[in-house]
Amino acid sequence: MRVRLRQVALVAQRLEPVESALRRELGLGEPFRDPGVAEFGLENAVMAVGDTFLEVVSPVRPGTAAGRYLERRGGDGGYMAIFQLDDLAGARRRLPDLGVRVVWQVDLPDIAGTHLHPKDVPGALVSLDWADPAGSWRWGGPEWTAQVPAHAAGGIVGLTVQSPDPARLGARWAQVLDRACEQREGGAVVAVDGAELTFVPPRDDRGEGICSVTLVRPDGAGGGRRSLDVGGVRLQVG
């Protein structure tokens, strides 16, 4: 079964500064603003990086899950990891046996989504999704809905999650994604198609969560390899 890390979301107290910083630092184009996230009390900006996507979400009303996450982690940071699976139906059938609850689900003709309970799969809000055709991605906007537009190269190639028990967390994500978990000294690595998920001990006192995203800039646009902090997350850019 093919599994891709297709989208990573950051959560911010204020949308515009983080969105602007990402666009400026990474040379990203005009974002898509999904009206559907209003269901969760959010506003957002979704930006294509190759045929993967960086999203920023921000609460627009009190009492949201994203707002509580901001409070729990003490400010802006990583929030969500969305994986695209070829066999979503099979993955959904396995979830009850793994003790994983679904907190939100949608099934549309060209895309389906499955948000998993963060207490059952800690470290982020993990979503298992499916798209048809495989290169399309409705969450990226109308031009990606049920079609695959011409797009730049590059994309998200890595995600790092910090945890007080990184080996156990890596093994849990591997179970859910039906992938192998390589235990390493002080952590773990799970390989998916085109990306590595790395689980490490805490790098700060903000608790468990996404701490770094690794990406290749669209078309490899200038600047060489560098590291920068945006929205409470370290971006490793090459």
Specify the structural class.
alpha/beta
CA-based gyration radius:
17 Å
Approximate strand percentage = 35-45%
- Number of β-strand runs: 14
The N- and C-terminal alpha carbons lie at a distance of: 28 Å
Number of helices: 4
Please write out the topology.
Layout: E1 3-11, H1 15-26, E2 42-49, E3 52-59, H2 65-73, E4 77-85, H3 88-94, E5 102-107, E6 111-116, E7 125-131, E8 155-162, H4 166-177, E9 181-184, E10 187-192, E11 195-200, E12 209-216, E13 226-230, E14 233-237
Parallel strand pairs: 1-3, 4-7, 8-11, 12-14
Antiparallel strand pairs: 1-4, 2-3, 5-6, 6-7, 8-12, 9-10, 10-11, 13-14
Description:
This protein has 238 residues and is of the alpha/beta class. It has a single domain (3-237), classed as 2,3-Dihydroxybiphenyl 1,2-Dioxygenase, domain 1. Helices cover 17% and strands 40% of the residues. It has four helices and 14 strands. It has helices spanning 15-26, 65-73, 88-94, 166-177; strands spanning 3-11, 42-49, 52-59, 77-85, 102-107, 111-116, 125-131, 155-162, 181-184, 187-192, 195-200, 209-216, 226-230, 233-237. Strands 2-3-1-4-7-6-5 form a seven-stranded mixed β-sheet. It has a seven-stranded mixed β-sheet with strand order 9-10-11-8-12-14-13, covered by helices on one side. Strand 13 (226-230) and strand 14 (233-237) form a beta hairpin. The two termini are 28 Å apart. The model has no long low-confidence stretch (mean pLDDT 95).
Features:
globular; 2,3-Dihydroxybiphenyl 1,2-Dioxygenase, domain 1; seven-stranded mixed beta sheet; 40% strand; 14 strands; 238 residues
